[in-house]
Task: inverse folding
C-alpha cells in the first residue's frame, strides 16, 4: 500500500499539471468571484464560506478522472487488480493520493484565499478545519465516480454529473460550519455531521468503488 | 409457482402481454375520473382554484420517490440474483421517474407563484426534489454511456445503491441548511388525515391513477427493452454467420 501511494504521489508530482493545477484553479475562481459580485467587503464576507467550499469542490473535481484513467490506459490497473492487495485497498490508496495532491494543498492555502474574500478572522480556523475533515470525503466519492466512468471515452462530463449530487451533504455541512463559525455561533454540530459523513464515506465507498472497478475490468 | 418465475423474459413477456391492456385501461379510467373529479371539487376558501393543482402535484411527487425505491429494489435483485428483466425494469423506470420529478417541480412552481409569491424557494423539500432529479439524470446518463449492457446494469446498480443513501442523506441535510416553507404531509399513516373528504377521495383516486400509469409505462418500456435486447442478439448472430 505504501509503495502504491508513493508511486502515485511521485507520478503526480513528476508528470506535472496535476499537482498545482487544482490550486491554480482555486486561485482563479477566488479572483473571478469579486469581479462578478463587486468588490464590496461586506458582500464578499457574506458569500465567502460558500464560494470557498464550492471552489474547493470544483478544484477537486478537475483532477478526478486522472485517478484511474492513466492506469487504465497503460494497463497497470489490471496488474493492480491481480496484485495481492484487495481492490478496496487500491481504491483507498488512490483516493488518498488524490487527496494529498489536491485536497491537502487546498487546505493549506485556504486561509490565504479566505483573506482574498474578506472571510471574517473568526471563521479562518473553522474553514481550515472543515476543509481538512471534508475534503477526504470529496476525494473518496470522486474515486467512486472515476471508478464508474473509467472505461468510457467521454467520461469527464458524465463524471461531474454523477459525482456532484453526491457532494451535496458534504458541501452543506462544510459551508455551514464556516458560516456559523464566522458568525460566532455553535459550529460543532455541523462539524460533527461533516465528520460523520467523511468517516462513513471512507468506510463504505471503497467497497462500492471496488465493485465498479471490477465490473469495468471484466 | 414462485414469484421468481417471472424473471424469465419469456414468461414475463407472456404475462405482461395479457396484463398490459387491462393496466392501461384501468390507468386511463382512474386517471380521467380522478382528474375530472378533482377539477370539479369546490374551491378552497384560502387557496381558491389553485388547490386543484394538488391532484397532479401530490401523486407525481409520491411516484417520483417511489419509482426511485422501485429502481433500488430492482437493482438489488439484479445485483444479487442476476435477473435481466429486473435490470431492464430499473432502466425502463428511470426516465418515468425523472418526468414525475419534473411534473412535481413544475406544478409546485405554478402553485407557488400565486400562493407563496415565488416560483422557486430554496426550501428543503423543493431542494431535495431538485437533487433527486439530478440523481435521476446521472443514472440515465450512465445507462446510455456504457455500451456493454451487463456492465451498464452493474454500474448503474451500484450507482443506484450509493445514490439512494446520498439522496436520503441530502434530504435531511437540507433540513439543517434552511427552514422550510413547504407544508408538512396532510396524509400520513401515522398522524392520520388532516384533509377534507371533498379533496381526499379524488386525491386517492389520482394517486391510484398515477400508480397504474407508471405500471403501464413500466411494462411497455420493459417490453421494449427486452425486444431491443433480442434484436441486438439476432443482429449479432446474423453478423457472425
Result:
Amino acid at each position: 500500500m505504501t509503495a502504491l501511494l508513493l508511486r502515485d504521489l511521485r507520478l503526480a508530482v513528476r508528470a506535472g499539471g496535476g499537482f498545482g493545477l487544482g490550486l491554480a484553479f482555486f486561485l482563479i475562481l477566488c479572483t473571478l468571484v469579486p469581479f462578478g459580485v463587486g468588490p464590496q467587503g461586506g458582500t464578499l464576507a457574506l458569500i465567502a464560506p460558500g464560494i470557498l467550499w464550492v471552489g474547493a469542490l470544483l478544484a477537486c473535481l478537475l483532477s478526478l478522472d486522472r485517478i484511474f484513467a492513466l492506469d487504465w490506459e497503460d494497463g497497470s490497473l489490471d496488474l493492480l487488480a491481480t496484485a495481492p492487495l484487495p481492490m478496496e485497498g487500491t481504491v483507498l490508496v488512490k483516493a488518498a493520493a488524490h487527496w494529498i495532491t489536491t485536497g491537502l494543498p487546498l487546505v493549506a492555502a485556504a486561509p490565504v484565499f479566505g483573506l482574498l474574500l474578506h472571510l471574517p478572522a473568526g471563521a479562518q480556523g473553522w474553514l481550515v478545519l472543515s476543509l481538512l475533515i471534508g475534503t477526504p470525503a470529496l476525494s473518496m466519492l470522486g474515486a467512486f465516480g472515476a471508478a464508474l466512468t473509467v472505461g468510457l471515452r467521454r467520461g469527464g462530463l458524465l463524471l461531474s454529473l454523477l459525482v456532484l449530487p453526491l457532494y451535496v451533504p458534504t458541501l452543506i455541512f462544510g459551508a455551514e460550519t464556516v458560516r456559523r463559525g464566522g458568525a460566532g455561533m455553535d459550529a460543532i454540530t455541523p462539524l460533527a455531521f461533516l465528520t460523520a459523513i467523511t468517516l462513513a464515506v471512507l468506510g463504505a465507498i471503497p467497497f462500492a468503488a471496488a465493485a465498479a472497478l471490477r465490473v469495468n475490468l471484466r | 409457482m414462485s414469484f421468481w418465475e417471472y424473471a424469465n423474459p419469456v414468461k414475463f413477456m407472456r404475462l405482461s402481454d395479457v396484463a398490459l391492456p387491462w393496466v392501461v385501461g384501468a390507468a386511463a379510467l382512474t386517471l380521467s375520473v380522478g382528474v375530472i373529479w378533482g377539477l370539479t371539487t369546490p374551491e378552497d376558501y384560502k387557496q381558491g382554484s389553485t388547490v386543484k393543482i394538488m391532484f397532479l402535484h401530490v401523486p407525481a411527487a409520491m411516484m417520483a420517490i417511489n419509482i426511485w425505491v422501485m429502481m433500488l429494489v430492482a437493482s438489488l435483485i439484479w445485483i444479487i440474483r442476476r435477473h435481466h428483466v429486473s435490470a431492464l425494469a430499473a432502466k425502463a423506470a428511470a426516465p418515468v421517474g425523472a418526468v414525475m420529478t419534473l411534473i412535481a417541480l413544475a406544478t409546485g412552481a405554478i402553485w407557488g407563484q400565486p400562493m407563496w409569491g415565488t416560483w422557486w424557494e430554496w426550501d428543503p423539500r423543493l431542494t431535495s426534489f431538485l437533487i433527486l432529479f439530478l440523481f435521476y439524470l446521472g443514472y440515465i446518463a450512465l445507462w446510455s454511456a456504457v455500451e456493454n449492457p451487463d456492465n451498464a446494469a452493474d454500474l448503474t446498480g451500484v450507482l443506484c445503491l450509493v445514490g439512494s443513501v446520498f439522496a436520503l442523506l441530502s434530504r435531511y441535510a437540507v433540513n439543517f441548511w434552511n427552514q422550510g416553507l413547504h407544508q408538512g404531509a396532510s396524509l400520513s399513516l401515522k398522524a392520520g388525515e388532516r384533509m377534507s373528504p371533498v379533496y381526499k377521495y379524488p386525491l386517492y383516486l389520482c394517486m391510484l391513477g398515477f400508480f397504474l400509469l407508471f405500471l403501464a409505462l413500466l411494462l411497455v418500456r420493459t417490453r421494449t427493452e427486452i425486444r431491443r435486447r433480442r434484436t441486438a442478439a439476432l443482429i449479432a448472430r446474423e453478423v457472425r454467420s
Q: What stands out?
A: Chain B has a mean pLDDT of 86. The longest strand of chain B covers residues 187-188.
